[in-house]
Amino acid sequence: MLEPDFVINTRTSYDTIADGYATQFKDEFQRYPLHRALLTWFAELVGDGPVLDVGCGPGRTTGLLHSLGVDVAGVDLSPGFLAIARAENPGIRFTEGTMLALDQKPGSLAGLLANYSLIHVPDEALSEILAGFHRALRNGGYLWVAHQVGDEPRHMTEAYGQEIDLVFRRRQPDFLAAALSAAGFELRLRVVREPEDGELTPHTILVARKRPDSDVL
């Protein structure tokens, strides 16, 4: 099956800048304590798991959840990111794949994270991906979505001295909340924080629960 251009461009770009990205964000949970606190709360919601970190990048969020006692695995489309994730987290399973073709059994997950991984997905593919998340989660399972806030996409062609082709699709929290509701989720948390030093936009974190009556959707 032919992959969409956004998947190919995202994989190629992150492979190109994997080392630079991982170095820049090595201390991300020290820099963003609110993010860490909310992930700790998410870990309490999902209990032992299992949980899947979709678009896990270098595995920092996966590693944090693992340290909190969650049975968590990571999936990413970038072999460069996965090499870093495996080296830093030898006790966690990381696999190569895309959110368009998750291989989890239906209803098998207690939680799923899309931690800044929907930001490269065009609007026309969003409903298909959220439907896949919905299938993978058990009734009452939790979905975490972190995203930059905005109305216009940002196209980056250079980062860390390398040529890339990445489109960052900023979205409003109301848009994301409506997409989650349409996909069979009920919103449980919506947080918007202002930009930290070096950031260009506010950020939002949404946590939603799969509705027990939504398998008919």
TrEMBL record:
Domain Methyltransferase: start-end pairs: 51-141
Domain of life: Bacteria
GO MF annotation, one: methyltransferase activity
Transmembrane segments: none
Keywords per UniProt: Methyltransferase, Transferase
One BP term from GO: methylation
Listed PANTHER family: TRANS-ACONITATE 2-METHYLTRANSFERASE, TRANS-ACONITATE 2-METHYLTRANSFERASE-RELATED
Protein name as annotated: Methyltransferase domain-containing protein
Organism of derivation: Asanoa ishikariensis
